[in-house]
Specification:
The complex is a heterodimer.
Chain A (H helix, E strand, L loop, with lengths): L1 H18 L11 E8 L2 E2 L2 E8 L6 E6 L2 E4 L8 E8 L1 E9 L6 E7 L12 E4 L3 E8 L3
Parallel strand pairs in A: 1-10
Antiparallel strand pairs in A: 1-2, 1-5, 3-4, 3-6, 6-9, 7-8
Chain B lengths: L1 H12 L3 H52 L7 E4 L8 E3 L1 H5 L6 H6 L37 E2 L6 E2 L3 E3 L15 E2 L2 E2 L13 E5 L35 E2 L12 E2 L18 E6 L4 E5 L4 H8 L11
Parallel strand pairs in B: 9-10
Antiparallel strand pairs in B: 1-2, 3-4, 5-8, 6-7, 8-11, 11-12
């Protein structure tokens, strides 16, 4: 009987050791949340992207009613980041849709390039919960 | 004495409950170890097919280069010429058709018209060839290729060309594919082994009105940029967005040249990429963004480490 228990013990411990093997090169991640305003008013619909200046994960989230949250499991890494913010608003014009037949609304980015493609926004993220307010001014 | 003998024999010839339980427990553990392995073997087989399909496209690109002395154009997106004042529009996949054993389909395609001019034609007249399945463009880890919501149906695929580090309109550093442009090998001064040709992308749901991975189109959503890393949570900038949670994050209503999509896959830990030399590599989603972007430029002169 004692032998059986020994066999069981060996099997169980080998299973536990196998489970312990994981990918250790994965990015360290952290949570970010915050508020985005343009000329004082919250950005209704948009997107925020965190792009690493050095090593780290790229991450982003949609902005709704001025707020965004990136949970830790999909978040950026602690470190220096560039931030890109985009928000599309209808221009009032109509353009041809991809089928070449129907007309659809044309949209344009309400956020100036200095906050997205040519961004000047920089943040340093730390471990734990990061909270950031992005108060954008067009001028 | 008789009773004692019977008792003796009983001890030798049968299992006790504990012994039985131990045996069952061991079998259970073995099955628990084996089942995930079987599932992983299935995914490994799918991944291998996925990789092989990409390799075929790599060979097709090289054969195209041998024939035409340059890579096929990334797409022809509303290019205004004297014969097409409203803009010429041809998807990327059309150019590769003769090199993936689809010359018969290619011959049906009317190059004098835009791909959508005849969208209401049925198979196989006119540019209804857009409904012919292209199995070599499909990664079996992902879902079916048919897009049912598009009025006359269309085909999606999993491999998109490398369109640089920025958006559709601004590549930042030149990539081997651009609007009405395909590089020659001599343009790829970073070395064809250090430059991406194609990356994996994910197909939206069959009925979803989302242009991503729509290979039979000339929209920016059908190519891949390295603005963000592979499998990132950063939303893609697209015109029609059906995000499906973590699978295909996006933000909609981005029209024109501001659109940008990341490389995505369902494989654990990364995406497949095709280099310009025809090699297919698996790139970790934990790759440094600098390296990832350096790989997408063809003449940036960057020194690329291990990836």
């Amino acid at each position: 009987m004692l032998n059986h228990y020994r066999i069981m013990l060996v099997l169980c411990s080998s299973v536990l050791t196998l489970v312990g093997c994981t990918n250790e090169k994965a990015f360290e991640r952290t949570q970010v949340e915050g508020v985005v305003t343009l000329d004082g008013a919250p950005v209704e619909q948009g997107v925020i992207t965190f792009i690493p200046a050095g090593k780290g994960a790229t991450a982003g989230a949609n902005i709704e009613s001025g707020k965004f949250v990136i949970p830790k499991e999909k978040g950026p890494s602690p470190g220096d980041y560039r931030v890109e913010i985009d928000s599309s608003v209808p221009t009032g014009n109509k353009i041809l849709d991809t089928d070449g037949e129907t007309m659809v609304d044309e949209y344009a980015n309400a956020i100036p390039p200095k906050f997205n493609r040519l961004t000047e926004l920089k943040v340093t993220l730390k471990n734990g919960n990061n909270q950031h307010l992005f108060d954008l001014e067009k001028e | 004495m008789f009773v004692a003998r019977k008792h003796d024999r009983h001890l030798r010839s049968a299992f006790t409950l504990i012994e039985l339980l131990v045996v069952i427990a061991i079998i259970a553990i073995l099955i628990a170890l084996l089942l995930p392995a079987v599932q992983q073997a299935r995914e490994a087989a799918r991944r291998s097919t996925c990789k092989n399909n990409m390799k075929q496209l790599g060979l097709a690109l090289h054969n195209y280069h041998d024939t035409h002395r340059l890579f096929p154009p990334g797409m022809i997106y509303r290019v205004v010429t004297s014969s097409t004042p409203s803009g010429k529009r041809t998807p990327f996949c059309v150019h590769l058709l003769p090199f993936i054993d689809k010359a018969n389909v290619y011959n049906l395609y009317d190059h004098n018209r835009n791909w959508h001019d005849t969208v209401h034609d049925s198979i196989p007249t006119g540019n209804g060839v857009r409904l012919v399945p292209l199995p070599v463009w499909q990664c079996p880890t992902d879902r079916d290729a048919i897009w049912s919501a598009n009025p006359d149906g269309s085909i999606r695929g999993n491999y998109g060309v490398n369109w640089g580090q920025g958006t559709f309109g601004t590549q930042i550093k030149p990539a081997p594919f651009n609007n009405a442009f395909g590089a020659r090998f001599r343009d790829i001064t970073d070395g064809s082994s250090n430059t991406l040709a194609m990356m994996e992308m994910l197909k939206p749901e069959t009925s979803a009105n989302d242009y991503r991975a729509w290979i039979w189109n000339d929209e920016p959503e059908t190519v891949v940029m390295t603005r963000v890393g592979p499998n990132s949570s950063a939303p893609d900038l697209v015109v029609n967005c059906v995000s499906e949670g973590d699978r295909l994050p996006c933000t909609g209503s981005i029209t024109g040249s501001g659109r940008s999509n990341a490389s995505r896959s369902l494989h654990v830990g990364g995406v497949h990429v095709l280099m310009c030399d025809g090699a297919v590599r698996f790139v970790s989603e934990n790759i440094d963004l600098t390296t990832w972007q350096a790989l997408s430029s063809m003449s940036g002169g960057e020194v690329i480490g291990d990836f």
